[in-house]
Amino acid sequence: MKLHDVDVAVIGAGPxxxxxxxxxxxxxxxxxxxxxxxEELGGLLHQxxxxxxxxxxxxxxxxxxEYGHRFIEKALDxxxxxxxxxxxxxxxxDRQIGAVNTKEGFITFRPKSxxxxxxxxxxxxxxxxxxxxxxxxxxxxxxxxxxxxxxxFVPGKKVVILGSGDIGMIMARRLTLEGARVEAVxxxxxxxxxxxxxxxxxxxxxxxxxxxNHTVTQIxxxxxxxxxxxxxxxxxxxPVAGTQRTIACDTLLLSVGxxxxxxxxxxxxxxxxxxxxxxxxxxxxxxxxxxxxxxxNVLHVHDLVDNVSWExxxxxxxxxxxxxxxxxxxxxxxxxxxxxNIRYVVPQTISGRRDTTLYMRVNEPEETxxxxxxxxxxxxxxxxxxxxxxxxxxxxxxLGKLREGTKEITVDCEKRGGK
Amino acid sequence: MAQKKTFICIGCxxxxxxxxxxxxxxxxxxxxxxxxxxxEKYVLEEYTNPVRTLTATVLxxxxxxxxxxxxxxxxxVKTKLAEGMAVLAKVRARxxxxxxxxxxxxxxxxxxxxxxxxxxxx
Amino acid sequence: MSRVETEVLIIxxxxxxxAIARELSRYTADATLVEKGADVGQGITKYSSTIMCxxxxxxxxxxxxxxxxxxxxxxxxxxxLCRELDVPFKRIGSLELVENQAGxxxxxxxxxxxxxxxxxxxxxxxEPLQFIDRDTLRAWEPNVDxxxxxxxxxxxxxxNDPVRLTIALVDNAKKNGINxxxxxxxxxxxxxxxxxxxWTNNGSIACRYIINAAGEYVGKIAQMVDADDFAMYxxxxxxxxxxxxxxxxxxRMVLATGSGMVSPTIHGNLFFGISPxxxxxxxxxxxxTDKKLADTALRHAQELVPAVSxxxxxxxxxxxxxxxxxxxxxxxxxxxxxxxxxxxxNASIGFPGICAAPGVAKEMIDILTRQGLRLAENPRFDPYExxxxxxxxxxxxxxxxxxxxxxxxxxxxxxxxxVTEGEIVEAIRRGARTLDGVKFRCRPGMGRCQGGFCGPxxxxxxxxxxxxSEEEVTKKGGESRNLLYKGKELLEAHQ
Lengths: 419, 122, 495
Ligand SMILES: Cc1cc2nc3c(=O)[nH]c(=O)nc-3n(C[C@H](O)[C@H](O)[C@H](O)COP(=O)(O)OP(=O)(O)OC[C@H]3O[C@@H](n4cnc5c(N)ncnc54)[C@H](O)[C@@H]3O)c2cc1C
Ligand code: SF4
Prior knowledge:
The complex is a heterotrimer of chains A (419), B (122) and C (495). By secondary structure, chain A is α/β, with parallel strands linked by helices. Chain A folds into three domains: 2-121 and 258-327, 3-Layer(bba) Sandwich (FAD/NAD(P)-binding domain); 124-254, FAD/NAD(P)-binding domain, CATH 3.50.50.60; 336-415, no CATH class. Chain A has helices at residues 15-26, 64-77, 125-128, 141-151, 166-177, 196-203, 263-267, 305-325, 396-399, and strands at residues 8-11, 32-35, 51-53, 62-63, 81-83, 86-91, 97-101, 105-109, 113-116, 120-122, 138-140, 153-154, 158-162, 181-186, 210-211, 214-220, 227-232, 245-248, 251-254, 258-260, 292-294, 334-338, 344-346, 349-350, 356-361, 366-373, 377-384, 390-394, 408-415. In chain A, helix 1 (15-26) packs parallel to helix 2, helix 4 packs across helix 5 and helix 5 packs parallel to helix 6 (196-203). The mean pLDDT of chain A is 94. Chain B is an alpha+beta fold and 122 residues long. Chain B has two domains: 3-48; 55-116, CPE0013-like (CPE0013-like fold, Roll), CATH 3.10.530. Chain B has helices at residues 37-48, 81-90; strands at 3-8, 17-22, 28-32, 51-52, 55-60, 67-72, 76-77, 92-93, 102-104, 114-116. In chain B, strand 5 and strand 6 form a beta hairpin. The N and C termini of chain B lie far apart (60 Å). Helix content of chain C is 31%, strand content 22%. Chain C has helices at residues 15-24, 44-47, 66-85, 105-117, 134-140, 162-175, 218-224, 291-304, 353-370, 396-405, 421-429, 435-442, 455-466, 489-494, and strands at residues 2-5, 8-11, 31-34, 51-52, 89-91, 94-98, 130-133, 150-154, 158-160, 179-181, 186-191, 196-200, 203-207, 209-212, 233-242, 253-255, 261-264, 270-273, 280-281, 313-323, 334-337, 344-348, 412-414, 419-420, 485-486. Chain C is globular and about 65 Å long. The model of chain C has no long low-confidence stretch (mean pLDDT 90). Chains in contact: A-B, A-C, B-C. Chains A and C meet through strand 7, strand 8, helix 3, helix 4 and strand 12 of A and strand 20, helix 10, helix 13, strand 25 and helix 14 of C. Strand 12 (153-154) of chain A pairs antiparallel with strand 25 of chain C, so a sheet runs across the interface. The structure holds flavin-adenine dinucleotide (FAD) and iron/sulfur cluster (SF4). Flavin-adenine dinucleotide is lined by residues 11-17, 34-37, 42-45, 47-51, 185-186, 213-217, 221, 237, 239, 273, 319-321, 349-355 of chain C.
């Protein structure tokens, strides 16, 4: 394949990469390559056989593969060039890409612009430092999902799940439906880590016990997991003595958070936001490296794929424009700060000149609040939760109210008065 | 005698715990705990006819892909999910199949078909 | 059940047993090595800190300790040995940090002792110790805590990969005629007048000499023939490995008295561990990590290098340093013929046993000869092994060439460590039978996601190459299967 004249190279062909590549083509980029290490486009969507995808984007309740296929077909229709079974292993500060595949060997090329769409990975046991032995049968929920939904294996029949993230709860239901018994879902926080819909439809529907304010304090078993010890935690998330109980099981699934996969970004000199773990971007989704954009879970972890697609379309469009014009005219000047009970805001900088959507998450659940963006807008919200991303749309007109020379704008989540 | 049942509304991130009161004759007598009308609608549906889309996989035959993702063409009553899985355990999907192709018609007389939610090639 | 006859039986495929087997293969010895695990090097050897020291910087060394003498004999052989076997070995140097003026006594003593030992116990070509002041320390190691006023620099300290070294030693021993039996656990031994009858889970073995190199289990083996009393003091020691992305925090091993240590590994990670002084006695063979130990180790590491963070830990484990006499301390070993049973030789190689292993192996030849074993040189002995390709380490040109030759090298299976299918297939060809076996040969699953991504893929390749089904693939042999059921198997069982 000739790669000397690539306009936009998109790294990763999950929902983010596909949306970015399609939009880049639509926005006029001539040659758009979509690089993916797997044999097909679609990324993790293939293993997410459950429904709940596309409620916002398509107004339909689709499964992961269904949602994926709509984009796969569109990518091929719009003339995106897939580069499959190709792993990008190097990314230079000058946008030089180094990749390997079985046919062409080691490939290097320099596209006019790049969209980073590598997604995220799951936190592993090591990162949690769970005490105990190191038997087989401890795996992340996503790895289990791949075994159960794609490879055709069920890891075990008595399962404890640590973490109530969405993948964990979805896997609790999947494993139950496949004939395994989920003994408990254990969550260290006082509230679940995923969507309420999943608590109801994945746990309650199947009478799966949920232990909030609990954690796994010990793993037992030499060769294969034999049991785990679970204990209640106090306000500092430390186990409370005397509350330990041992649950016999053959499998421990971990659903304890996702980490944006930014090793390539770091190689390329992209500056990361320590809170999101993803790049710092402006509203066009450009990173600090000109011509390098990012979208989807590599930028910040989303709970709904619909938002991943929208955000990445923005990155794709900007990348196309950069490729066509050779540079970006205006970049973000105004820093968006996370204020009261706001964990982060993406984008981290804005120009204040065009319609902009702010994506954000809160630190703590709260009810009856208002989200306040500087003094240009407020929006009442019934309830906020760390697990549910918030979106605030700012029109160019509203942003026009900002004083000339504004350097910084803070987003706060405030309690509303009254009842 | 009146009976009470609690539901968690999934209408918004608040997740209200809604208590439904059912009178002696089994009729709905009242709601409590919901912060808006949406909650009543949801709970009523969950009480009278709770339905779910069953999503799962079936084994394949004649394909390098071991499994095919499938779903019900529309939601079915919640109580039939396990029975539905038992049916699916015996099904073998054969290529070629495209998204939407019927794999099992009229699953357990629910009126919903099991359809492919992914493509299957040999 | 089979019956094997062999002249020398080596029990244990750790670094000790492996080094001895390889040394014996220089001769026309009829020797067999048995290992209970599915792979070699998975005992104490796996848990070692991988630090190669000559004892120049360690005050606990004494010429009257057998262990010290073995290290002095072994360490000069280590680098050439690694070169012959094509396994990595890298001098990184160490810095023993000094916090205040009072703490200066320690480095002064070390420097003085180094002068005494240089050319006597320590080879004369070894680099001298050096005291470096605060400014040099800051310039060399900007991430070391600013409170330290200087350090003793030992340029000789090196790191290696003890598991790879063990594997290479065993591969080489095998090539040169030593019989190796894996998943063969010695269950009982009977001493006769002329030799031993040994029972294993795989049949019996008749032999004349036994070398007990069973690591943590030397006591158990010795007990089988009442060969020796090993009063075991299992010292529990905790170590954690950090993500490569913080691998550049320090360039040399740093340590301080009574505190922990932090060091680069040969593979570009960092690791930290508890120093012997603060280690605790554990329950023998209980390798479970506990929170207290983990917290202490982290606190100690942060004292040295404040930027060390729990968030960057990718793996942690507990190992045992087994020694015989708590009074003597951790720098003593038990290498020699049993006091009670002739031709039964203990090789409990102590700490730092990796460094001592080449010395132990040489000494073992003397011991065996003195015990009556006749050894003639093996005319076909070939000391060399060739490491398997390490894709991530190759230049772009070499990568191209390799993929052109074998396209499987163009298929990256482990994204964190950039390991290709070609390497995994090669590791299996060279004897890996389990996920850990593959992991310790070419590193898939050693990275930050700990096999989350590559696990299913490596499982599939192992199953394909070994001609077994994926549920039969184990993590480390025995019952350590990761996948217990086929899809729908549990549903069918219900009906
Ligand atoms: C935390 C820690 C850090 C260390 N750091 C260093 C260091 O930096 N540098 C250094 O030089 N040394 C270090 N050491 C010491 C070093 O690791 C050991 O001295 C060395 O690995 C011991 O090797 P071995 O062959 O005696 O034992 P092992 O590696 O335990 O080998 C014994 C083998 O025998 C097998 N076995 C046991 N029972 C049976 C049976 N019945 N039948 C068949 N097989 C059996 C076991 O499965 C095992 O594979 C460290 C040790 C620890 C615990
Ligand atoms: S009842 Fe209304 S406020 Fe309460 S969770 Fe449902 S939708 Fe939200």
